[in-house]
Design brief:
Beta-galactosidase, Chain A, domain 5; nine-stranded antiparallel β-sheet; alpha+beta; signal; GH-type_carb-bd; GH92 mannosidase fold; 38 strands; about 775 residues; six-stranded mixed β-sheet; 20 helices
Length: about 775
Amino acid sequence: MQRSGLTRLVMVALLSGPAGAVSAQTASGVGGYESVDPMIGTGGEGHTFPGAVAPFGMVQLSPDTNTECKIRDCYKWAAGYRYTDTSITGFSHTHFSGAGHSDLGDVLVMPAVGADAAVALEPGDADTPGSGYRSRFSHASERATPGYYAVTLSDPGVRAELTAGTRVGVHRYTFPTDKPAHLIVDLRSSIYNYPGKILWSSLRMLPDGTITGARETRGWAPARKLFFAMRFSAPLTGHAFRNTETAIAYKGFKGPGRGDPGVAQIAGQALVARLDFGTLAKPLEVHVAVSGVDEAGALANLASESGSFDQIRAATRTAWDSALGAVEIDAAPAMRKTLYTALYHSLMAPSVFGDADGRYRGPDDQVHLAKGFTVHSTFSLWDTFRAEHPLLTLIQPAQRNADFVNSLVASIKASPFGILPVWQFQGRETWTMIGYHAAPVIADAYLKGIKGFDAEAALDAMVASADYALYGGIGDYKTLSYVPIDREPEAASKTVEYAYDDWSIARMARAMGRTAIADRFDKRALNWRNSFDPQTGFVRARKADGSFRVPFDPTAINYGSDYTEGNAWQYSWFMPQDEGGLIRALGGDAATVKKLDAMFDYDNSKIDYSHAEDIAGLIGQYIHGNEPSHHVAYLYAYAGAPWRTQERLAQIVASQYKPTPDGLAGNDDLGQMSAWLLFTAMGFYPVAPGSGEYVIGRPFADRIVLHLPNGKRFAIEAPGLSATNRYVGSVTLNGAALDRSFVRHDEIVAGGVLRFTMAAKPNTAWGNAAAARPYSITPYAVTVRR
């Protein structure tokens, strides 16, 4: 997706994974924590950050290497850091992991040395060393592990270390002992910065030396407020708060760009502070907490996670050991590193956004109190409903998943629009992407038996979102049974995505006994057919008069056109609830396999996609670097040819992932790219979340064990797996032959062993019968299970 005392035991409990999920070691003796490389994805188009974060942490404390890029060139710095850069601007406290668009980069801190008057308050030019507080660095000095990052800043000669708890980030700076030490706190800095983005900010010095502050920004999300509190392990010897606005007209200032050196508080749109500590004989620790509520909330969050740098780091290490220990991976070293890093990336979002006392700021910009759950935000739902959220239902406690649902429902209750989040962060809606994909996230959780939320209220919220006529052409969708392109952009994509979301609503409603809702949305779930053109075999955009829009080019990709970040080749496969219906529409199994092959084997040599930033990882017209293609390789199994899925998966994994900084072919999108790989490595994938099924592909690890939240274990074994033995010869579940190309969720959570016997040649007789194929509304050729 691209667009538009010692730390309290309660902290460890909040961050911990499933009970009994310890730091599992593989057969090689290397545990999950040691196998993670946070540098994977920091180059290329992965857009991940290397800094310190706790599992689902509210603080993501990480280095920024470019916050002053021109707006059209900022795509590469969506996470603030890019591996190919050679200097660091500072360390800020909020980041997205793998987003295709960005914001955040709040409360930038940077160490400096020298006489007070000589300390630069501007970052300077990256190409001119010494022109500002920016510093050069070498990758050789970097160290990154889950919850910890360190680097030596060459110009001031300072060793910087970072760690983070849930709501607190902790810095440790080792300064030269013979030079005065300083910190720059720059509230002007932001990722995707541009003039006028900072609406207002403030800094305040409390009597005990604590610094508090706030700022409001208009970036990707409008009118976003964030507050912070900052404490130090050494006393301040002086400070200067400055406003660099060109026009200043409020108390405490004597002119443009100047402030009283000792002023205790300041407000404005362009604030920067110099904090002085004199010469230091030991490292300086800086504790920073954030809050979306107020400065008092930030102070309380700071108090809720007390302890030294090493204590916070140890507690977060324990949390990561537990979270990563939910999955035990035995694989070749490169694959093990790639998979554990994928697991790490999948455990960052949705992130905590509620304060320690339960207060949070809602989409109505008012403060609310959560009762019985922890508020989370950063919902990249267009991406994460596909695999990220289904993965978390398997590897995170039910309470965490219930927190997600409760947070979504709480958002609609406080929303001025009466719709579930679309792409939300820090409680603010961005309206980025399409669909109402909170619906399948909620439905999938409910149908998997996750408790701890009001299912009736959740279903009502799903229906309200699906019926909100003013959003994305839904008014026309309800009357015409498709979205008309002459009234709404990206209409072809919206029609098929709405139909899938509708199906998930119907599934949940029927399970709850709300038959009228189920019947209505079951009908809407078939609306994908109204955008399918039998003449061309593609999903296409139709006008309000019923005609398909012309001219038609199935390879064309333009933002705001018929499709969302894709074209007809990708979107013509998006009816995961009814792939059997698509197969019939295409003319049967053989025709479907032929069309799938045509997609993967398409010659792109005469097509230029340079205008579309997020179109990465192309294999023909299959685009793995963006989400609409993610389920497509598994569709061969629906057409009775699962061995072809196995071939395509080998092609995708080999070309799209590697354990290097440029090891992700496209944006990780808050864990979706990573979750795809984890599922695929286990040998199955949730093509249709809400179906209760996972489509079997082929494994990419010798053995993976899921330590399930219910205390049971589910092992996936693949003896004989190798580059030669890349096909599935046979499959057993708990010792009994499994002749179908799917495994059910209830079979996994019951515990047991899924065993793949790998072979050098495809077994074309396995999984091809109609009754052996995954869920579909429309039966395959003959009567099947449903």
